[in-house]
């Protein structure tokens, strides 16, 4: 096929163009933020299609989020000047692997309609296993085991090849429990997220014919955000690209922010070794941000050691300096940002007017979102939360979906467990155990176990009657799912009505009940976009963001992690306080690894901004219901002064803060205003002196009180205290613990101020 004209190539600079036109063999694009890596990657797809090198379905392209995948598809269409007929293999690692695994499930002992468990289900399952093994789940909580197993899966270790060095994990029972967990998942015909990749790696490693088939099929492989791939993802890519080696990876070592989830920045550094002869393209021109923003980001990241190091320059106009502002407390910060956004809409201080879609608030921790959500609801400022606490994670939504899951796949025991006594059917723990036993002894799923139990009259009274109704219901709804005259939206409503689930909330007198009913309606609405319930359930299992749906302009709120790869004309970065950002945990760690990852996160945050970047911090913050004093983030000290403008908070010098002062809680808490404004960074900013910023180690004085952490402790247990860090319990006296802290030495602390170290 003769190549059509390629206007998309004219939009690229020479280095980008080189990366796009080098179609054969391995290519690595290693460059800083905003240099057009994603743009070049997209152009490469277009170029492959335009030159007839590959059909849309022969290109495998991996993005970091579903949102990024959608956007890339749209851009390919735009650049190509025509709609692309499906790009079925453009998506996240998970989305691509789930499709592949459905085709080859039997090779790892699953059926093609396997369910994908979410974290909740996973934890429930692990709890059961821990109990079945007579392990004390107080000392050895399921969450901890889940973390260990995830870690192993991220490293592509099946139970058989977890290395010996890990044998001590989870009190020496980790590997054994991992084995049992995998067996149980197979029995349930289920996978967790980590399995999607792990199973595919196993299949490719053990079945040469399957691997060969896909090596032929995927003629070209492209990967965005390569610095955040974990070992399993890396192995999977290396297996697939091993034949033709037409693989193009793009990334930025300075933006590696998923180390805590097993990502290995080493993957990007190793690329040239893995693929000898790889072309390495470096991009240096930044097209996104103003020089002030770029300088601020570059200065912060220069504090990290062992970087590849990159030069970034831009032709864009100077624009505004990075703005820095301190507030009395978190509420005040939210109020100010709300007002500032409203002002920005109409244009203030000589700025151009901004649309709400142009503005984003990027937080370090998702609990920071609530203050903004509350404030914006109050003032009627439209916002969306991206990747935050999701609609699909709400209790009523999860219940409803469990009903759908049982109907779509009656072997889904976890879903059945969730709904069997919701609403209350008089089927308490005892009855449920009987169902479990009937299922176990007959080697059948719970639904069948329940049927057997009823047939054998093993259950009596109200419970038996209700259970029979439920089982009948499941059978009937299952048949209805095949009825061509009934839409799946109608079916969903029928299921929720006939099961008594809707009525349960209608009769509920709590203030949340009306909202829950609204959500259920919303859920049925959401089904419309899908062909059937099964398709919908799969979608929900995979979505990472909840920003679909309505169209009006909105401010975006998300975590820094979720903001990767995105850009906004105006960005707010609130909560730059030691203990929040960088996180307390990273500050307490020995070594700099955690702190350096936080610094990369700061770099990611600042570089999302095109024109206006506003960093803020509060002097007081309420954490778990307690006030605590905060110091400005050490990263603020690393901002280059000549590129920063310090804003004065409203009322600071007009005495307006008296009214907003938080209530004292009694425990070491509230900072005096002086604490905040005496910090070296703040003083330096205020005086606008031209001295070079010096980063000073600071004493950590934050006290965070975790009210949920009131639980039994044992001598020898490793614990974490927000102030003193990690240590081991050496004595217990009532509610006081004597702890030998690694850094702070032996101290007596109140039990409820410590948490299990591995929680
Ligand atoms: P990140 O590291 O944050 O993911 P990136 O390197 O992927 O950034 P892109 O998102 O691809 O960068 O590009 C940043 C911005 O610069 C986009 O708005 C893009 O359209 C623009 N851009 C990229 N290359 C060019 C170019 N050659 N000419 C004009 N604009 C460009
Ligand atoms: Mg990008």
From TrEMBL:
A matching Pfam family: UvrD-helicase
Record-listed E.C. numbers: 5.6.2.4
Taxonomy, superkingdom: Bacteria
The entry's keywords: ATP-binding, DNA-binding, Helicase, Hydrolase, Isomerase, Nucleotide-binding
Domain UvrD-like helicase ATP-binding: 10-290
Domain UvrD-like helicase C-terminal: 291-565
Residues given in the record as ATP binding sites: 31-38
PROSITE patterns: UVRD_HELICASE_ATP_BIND, UVRD_HELICASE_CTER
Catalytic activity entry: ATP + H2O = ADP + phosphate + H(+); Couples ATP hydrolysis with the unwinding of duplex DNA by translocating in the 3'-5' direction
Family, similarity comment: Belongs to the helicase family. UvrD subfamily.
Protein name (database record): DNA 3'-5' helicase
């Amino acid at each position: 096929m003769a190549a059509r004209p390629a206007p998309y190539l004219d939009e690229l600079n020479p280095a980008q163009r080189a990366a796009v036109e080098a179609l054969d063999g391995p290519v690595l694009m290693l460059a800083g933020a905003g240099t057009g890596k994603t743009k070049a990657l997209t152009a490469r797809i277009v170029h492959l299609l335009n030159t007839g090198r590959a059909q849309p379905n022969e290109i495998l392209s991996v993005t970091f989020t579903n949102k990024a995948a959608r956007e890339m598809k749209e851009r390919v269409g735009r650049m190509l000047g025509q709609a692309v007929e499906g790009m079925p293999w453009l998506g996240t690692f998970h989305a691509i692997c789930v499709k592949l695994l459905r085709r080859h499930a039997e090779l790892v002992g699953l059926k093609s309609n396997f369910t994908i468990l979410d974290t909740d289900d996973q934890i429930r399952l692990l709890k059961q296993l821990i109990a079945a093994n007579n392990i004390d789940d107080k000392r050895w909580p399921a969450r901890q085991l889940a973390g260990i197993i995830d870690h192993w899966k991220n490293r592509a270790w099946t139970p058989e090849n977890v290395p010996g060095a890990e044998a001590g994990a989870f009190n020496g029972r980790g590997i054994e429990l991992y084995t049992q967990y995998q067996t149980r998942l197979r029995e349930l015909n289920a996978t967790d997220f980590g399995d999607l990749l792990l199973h595919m790696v196993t299949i490719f490693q053990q079945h040469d014919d399957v691997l060969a088939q896909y090596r032929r099929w995927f003629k070209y492989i492209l990967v965005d955000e390569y610095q955040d791939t974990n070992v399993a993802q890396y192995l999977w890519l290396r297996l697939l690209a091993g034949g033709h080696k037409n693989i193009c990876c793009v990334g930025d070592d300075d933006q590696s922010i998923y180390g805590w989830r097993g990502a290995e920045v080493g993957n990007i550094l190793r690329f040239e070794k893995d693929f000898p002869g790889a072309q390495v393209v470096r991009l240096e021109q930044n097209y996104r941000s103003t020089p002030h923003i770029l300088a601020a980001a570059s200065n912060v990241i220069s504090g990290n050691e062992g970087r590849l190091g990159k030069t970034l320059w831009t032709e864009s106009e100077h624009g505004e300096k990075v703005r820095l502002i301190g507030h009395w407390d978190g509420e005040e910060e939210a109020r100010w940002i709300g007002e500032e956004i409203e002002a920005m809409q109409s244009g203030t201080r000589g700025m151009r007017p901004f649309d709400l879609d142009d503005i984003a608030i990027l937080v370090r921790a998702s609990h920071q979102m609530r203050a903004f959500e509350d404030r914006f609801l109050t003032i009627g400022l439209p916002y969306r939360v991206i990747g935050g606490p999701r609609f699909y994670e709400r209790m009523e939504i999860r219940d409803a979906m469990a009903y759908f899951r049982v109907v779509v796949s009656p072997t889904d025991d976890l879903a059945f467990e969730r709904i069997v006594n919701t609403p209350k059917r008089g089927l308490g723990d005892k009855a449920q155990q009987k169902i479990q036993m009937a299922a176990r002894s007959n080697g059948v799923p719970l639904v069948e176990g329940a049927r057997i139990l009823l047939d054998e009259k093993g259950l009596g009274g109200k419970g038996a009657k209700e259970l029979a109704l439920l089982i009948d219901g499941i059978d009937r709804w299952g048949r209805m799912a095949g009825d061509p005259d009934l839409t799946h939206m109608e079916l969903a409503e029928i299921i929720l009505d006939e099961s008594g689930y809707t009525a349960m909330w209608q009769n509920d007198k709590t203030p949340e009940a009306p909202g829950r009913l609204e959500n259920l309606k919303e859920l049925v609405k959401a089904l419309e976009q899908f062909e059937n319930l099964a398709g919908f359930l799969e979608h929900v299992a995979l979505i990472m963001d909840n920003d679909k749906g309505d169209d009006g302009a909105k401010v975006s709120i998300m975590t820094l992690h979720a903001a990767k790869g995105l850009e906004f004309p105006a960005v707010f970065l609130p909560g730059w306080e030691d203990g929040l950002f960088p996180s307390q945990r990273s500050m307490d760690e020995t070594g700099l690894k955690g702190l350096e990852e936080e610094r990369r996160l700061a770099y990611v945050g600042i570089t999302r901004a095109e024109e206006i970047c506003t960093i803020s911090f509060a002097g007081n913050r309420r954490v778990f219901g307690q006030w605590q004093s905060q110091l400005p983030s050490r990263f603020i000290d690393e901002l280059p002064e000549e590129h920063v403008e310090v804003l004065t908070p409203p009322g600071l010098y007009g005495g307006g803060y008296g009214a907003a002062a938080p209530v004292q809680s009694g425990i070491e808490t509230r900072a005096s205003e002086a604490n905040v404004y005496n910090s070296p960074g703040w003083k330096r900013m205020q005086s606008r002196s031209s001295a070079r910023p010096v980063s000073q180690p600071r004493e950590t004085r934050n006290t965070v009180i975790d009210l949920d952490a009131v639980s039994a402790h044992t001598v020898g247990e490793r614990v974490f205290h927000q102030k003193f860090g990690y240590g081991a319990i050496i004595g217990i006296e009532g509610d006081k613990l004597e702890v030998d802290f690694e850094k702070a030495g032996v101290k007596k602390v109140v039990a409820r101020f410590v948490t299990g170290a591995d929680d």
